[in-house]
Amino acid sequence: MNDEIQSILSHYNSDKTRLMDMLWDVQKQQGYISEEAITYLADGLKMSADDVRETLTFYHFFLDKPFGKYQVYLCNTVIAKMNSYHEVREALQQETGCSFNSVDDSGTFGLGDANCIGLSDQEPAMMVDNVVFTRLTPAKVKEIISQLKQDKSPEEIANPAAIANTELGYVTAMVDANLRTESIVLFKPNRDYKSILQTCLNDNIPEDIIEMVTDSNLRGRGGAGFPTGLKWRMGRDAEGEEKYVICNADEGEPGTFKDRVLLSHSPKDVLLGMIAAGYAIDSRNGIIYLRAEYWYLKDYLQQQIEDFRDEGLLGKRILGKNFEFDIRIQMGAGAYVCGDETALIESCEGKRGTPRVKPPYPIQQGYLGMPTSVNNVETLACASRIIEKGAAWYNDMGTDESTGTRLLSVSGDCEKPGIYEIEWGTTLNEVMTMIGAVDPRYVQISGPAGDSLSVEQDGEREFCYSDLSCNGSLMVFDNSRDILAIVRDFSEFFVEESCGICVPCRAGGVDLMHKMERIIDGKACQQDLDEITQWSKLLKGTSRCGLGTAAPNPILATLDKFPEIYEEKLVIQKGSLLPSFDLDEAMSAHELAYKKLVGEDE
Amino acid sequence: MSVKITIDGQQINARTGDNIIDVAAKNGVYIPSLCYVKGKPCLGTCRICSVKVDGRVMAACTIPVSEGMEIEVNDDAEIVDMRKALVELLFSEGNHNCPSCEKSGRCELQATGYEVGMMVSRFPYRFTPHVVDHASKTIFLQRDRCIFCQRCVDMVRDERTGKKIFSIKGRGTNSRIEIDAELANEMTPQQVRQASDLCPVGCIIDKTQGYDDPIGKRKFEVKSIKERALDKEHR
């Protein structure tokens, strides 16, 4: 094995900032990352083995134990649970002969859970190694597992026509794009990228590009809404031997999948946006941080990069100008928190995806300590249109303060889930009509970290940065859905995805989840609701990053919008004991512990 | 370069770039922290130094002072209670039974509990399983007391190779402190003592040390954690 590890090490020049890639290479070769491999890697990188494990054990999809020849991860989001998830889960266990979070006796199948894998418009869905299967039914599961047992590879099953994985057909064989609207800004077909870039470089110095993007009022589409032009201005002004452009393609917010569709159907928009960013801030290096859930896009994206290199749009002297820029793909390994730009940078450097202390901000000191502009996939795609059509064209769309359009990833109770491009300023009611939502009651925008809306109360509110500043995820729930169960799932999501580095998020998130369970169990009283409000304030105020500050959002927002569903569940406290305190259970715990300690007979 | 700021209404001249904890301490205002070590890069993990800066809650160790900042440490009841709540959260998350702990009297968490006036945790106690790692000759790790401050991870290194001796495995609620026993066995007695002293709780325990001083004469009883924090500044 040492030879294989040595060759991986030398491929990356024993550069420990590339540890993520090395771990993936080992795992793809050997199925998992053994103790022996860890030791060789650690020696080669002059790290302690525990230091390698720090990174390895942080990420959901890195395995330090064998997890079957085929690694199956079933997505378990609230949206999946609205679409026969439980039946599919049961079918998987039955067909593979193993239960979740274990491997079957023959070592063929490992079954695991996954949080949102970016397929909410076609759930239930699962990942098997590098590919995905969508719209699962028990019958479909039976068929897939039986073919795997007959030694057909997951790729062969998912892509029976054997289309090369560098082609769009490979991706669309597995997943639907579900593009529901005509192109306004994004998904413009047949763009001549070479001439767009040629014109752009001929007519503009970098400052012009920054000015154009500033004038367009484009703001970061990841959710925070930071003005893109200002970020690039700061990037240009920042001092550094190198500068970096990172495309954040780690969309992990449950319910969002717009970046998947942009990367599959308009990948070159994104690449062109990165090139523009590189030109603007004077960077030579771009990185696409691609979430591991999107492995099936990797070779396809790589091919798009190659195409651009062949056409002279990437490389040493781009289109004959004194401008150098190239792009590499960095795979993630399953961590929602890496959507935070500083956690993403840590991950790019081969470390745990722990959000950094800010300041300094990445635009001052980011990747490898150098000025780094981290931009969302959609932001970059928009920028590629702005440099083509100009700021005024873009400014004409949307509202005065929220210009242009917004992609919505729509899922849940509606007739037409999928991708919608709306102009900022569109109301919630208009969106509900567009997507064919019958009897919608509750809409969760921007994922669990975002806001909970009551269609009745919020229908006329507008999508824009000063009101509903949605990051793209939009999940619809009708009157038949159990809102409390949904909120509990969201709380659990934050507990599972907390990096654990700060106290309020790591410890407080668990307490909030337990409170939700107490409410659902009918054991909560008014004091529990009061404590939820107080503890939420603590998490929101003191957490280190957006994950912790957002973790209480679904509870607080639904408590505000749908107080009646909480009140219905409350019980009146009688006497001095809280209703959640079970005296018999508390006493039996002592008895059990005593028996365990001294044995049954005593 | 100096800047003018206020702490609890008191006008202060501070040096640009200094963080709020240091500036406050220099001016006699104690802000508790369990991860920050003066002179070392800020870790920003425990959040117990939370204060209000121009009305917004921020961790004092992470924020360099800048002109005109209005900082509330003790004047705002809400922020005082938030710091207390964070300490309580730690007491309920791990097993911190002071009377039976080797670190009692020398423990920063315990001492900070006294400073913030904590009587009992408002959060449900988890009663997490006790896990002790004896793998190293000189150190035992009482894992259920770790608060993941990262001091040992960031600040303790093998003197010969520069490798990490302590590390964190897993993430979130599954995080777990690890020790490289082989490297730990190479540590000098002095380094072991330093690592144990660096640990703000009773997680990294020097096997040769414990219950040495009688109650009443222990580190933070002789001089409180607050006095020490302020004193160091005046020196």
The total domain count of chain A is 5
Query: Can you name the CATH architecture of the largest domain in chain B?
Result: 2-Layer Sandwich
N to C succession of SSEs of chain B: EEHEEEHHEEHEEHHEHH
Q: Note the quaternary state here.
A: heterodimer
User: Span between N and C termini of chain B?
Assistant: 22 Å
- Kindly report the average pLDDT value of chain B: 95
CATH-defined superfamily of the largest domain in chain A: NADH-ubiquinone oxidoreductase 51kDa subunit
If classified by CATH, what would the architecture of the largest domain in chain A be? 3-Layer(aba) Sandwich
The residue ranges of chain A in which pLDDT falls below 50 over 5 or more consecutive positions are none
Our measurement of the CA-to-CA distance between the termini of chain A, rounded to an integer number of angstroms, reads 54 Å
Beta-strand percentage range of chain A: 5-15%
What fold name stands as the CATH topology of the largest domain in chain A?
Rossmann fold
Counted up, domains of chain B total: 2
Number of strands of chain B: 10
The secondary structure category of chain B is alpha+beta
User: What is CATH's topology name of the largest domain in chain B?
Assistant: Alpha-Beta Plaits
